[in-house]
Amino acid sequence: MTEDRRKFIRQGEEARREALIAAALSLMAESGPEAATVRAIADRAGVTAGLIRHYFDGKDELMLAAYGRIMGRMTENSLAAIAHVGDGAEARLAGFVAASLRPPVMDPDAMGLWAGFLHLVRRDARIRAVHRATYLEYRDQLQRLIAALPRQADARQLRADAIACNGVIDGLWLEGSALPDAFDEGELVTIGLQAVGAILGLDLAAHLPPPFTDEPAPPETRTE
Amino acid sequence: MTEDRRKFIRQGEEARREALIAAALSLMAESGPEAATVRAIADRAGVTAGLIRHYFDGKDELMLAAYGRIMGRMTENSLAAIAHVGDGAEARLAGFVAASLRPPVMDPDAMGLWAGFLHLVRRDARIRAVHRATYLEYRDQLQRLIAALPRQADARQLRADAIACNGVIDGLWLEGSALPDAFDEGELVTIGLQAVGAILGLDLAAHLPPPFTDEPAPPETRTE
DNA sequence: TCCAAAACTATACGCTTGCATAAATACTAT
DNA sequence: ATAGTATTTATGCAAGCGTATAGTTTTGGA
């Protein structure tokens, strides 16, 4: 009764770090980078602000960890779509492209997050390193899928094709995420498949994967 | 001698507004959105902070004006490259694509600026309107160039082609701006022309425009 | 059972932000 | 020459920022 100090239960390093990262990402996705203050993050994570400094050397460290988490998740989401597709290189590539142009990868919140971090890329060397690694990893995945296609191409051509296809996907992802209602349902998937197919000399649209996977609806990016 | 108050000369609305917009853009390009504080902007424009409120209703208004300025300029820069190209629709399209993938359009500073504003797109309706208008205007320009090509395509196909080509350009622009040293000199121009050509069924690379225009070197985006 | 270590809270400090307000200056019209 | 007005400076304020630090609670092992 003296002073009702907040009750709490210990949760340990792993859980708290994850909770703080998730809180930072959700705030940033909703309301932009400037909304992700230490107080707001702590509040959403159900702790007080001081705890951030207990688990991270500072806010910058938390943001760096959060960036790594979200970027990795986006590549994972694209890859997960083709994990169980076994029937041919073309189908796998088509699945990868389509997954990148559909939720939860193509998503306004995801783009808000990505944009919020992007401007940090130029100032913070460690953020830049994460960006570079993520971009190259994604492109390598794509290049591997392209290399598996039944066609002949030397290393130089393979690199150029991967860069071009990655460009199409990135550009369409960006525009579809930024202006969701400027495109019809599934329009960007079709366009993306046609474009990638044209670049590689294939008819990828023929492999148009089913619009729904086994999951009913993945509504949010931000939920863990 | 009493108190050395700062000397000044009157410059009038037009000049001051432009100076403040230019200052805001240059700060943002250099060091990100959070560096563009009212004090820093005023300082760079050679005035004191209070003047911003005299010419704009608030900082948000200044940022909105600045966003309109930079986005318009980027489309202009792409269009300027083909203003004096008269020999054929393919050559004009090739010039447009190439210009979008070279300085001053493709440029780390320009991308920093673009990214800095992008996350405002989701919160501020007026910023979003500018974004939408700029994107659609750019795409319409591209679509007009595509429509002028000697080939047959219905309206639906024309729209899809424009979206796809715009996607390639945007994606390559983004990656080349974000990671300039990940690509060879001129590599993205070549890849972009090949990709757009493949999508449209042309050999655009044959029209590869000269690497230099009549200007010696446009070094900076941020200078007016 | 109790005690030491770790987890967590609470508070305050210094700094920066955008903005309001009031005073001073430079220019223009007369 | 001078008065008037728009332009510009100067100053202060309330709010919010990240962080440092000290104190309190929980927890698990001796």
TrEMBL record, chains A, B:
Q: Name one GO molecular function term.
A: transcription cis-regulatory region binding
Cited InterPro entries: BetI_C, DNA-bd_HTH_TetR-type_CS, Homeodomain-like_sf, HTH-type_TetR-like_transc_reg, HTH_TetR, Tet_transcr_reg_TetR-rel_C_sf
Q: Does the keyword Hydrolase apply?
A: no
User: Is Methyltransferase found in the keyword set?
Assistant: no
Q: Which SUPFAM superfamilies match?
A: Homeodomain-like (SSF46689), Tetracyclin repressor-like, C-terminal domain (SSF48498)
* Keyword annotations of the record: DNA-binding, Repressor, Transcription, Transcription regulation
Which segments constitute the HTH tetR-type domain? 14-74
Instruction: Quote the protein name from its UniProt record.
Output: TetR family transcriptional regulator C-terminal domain-containing protein
Q: Which organism is it from?
A: Szabonella alba
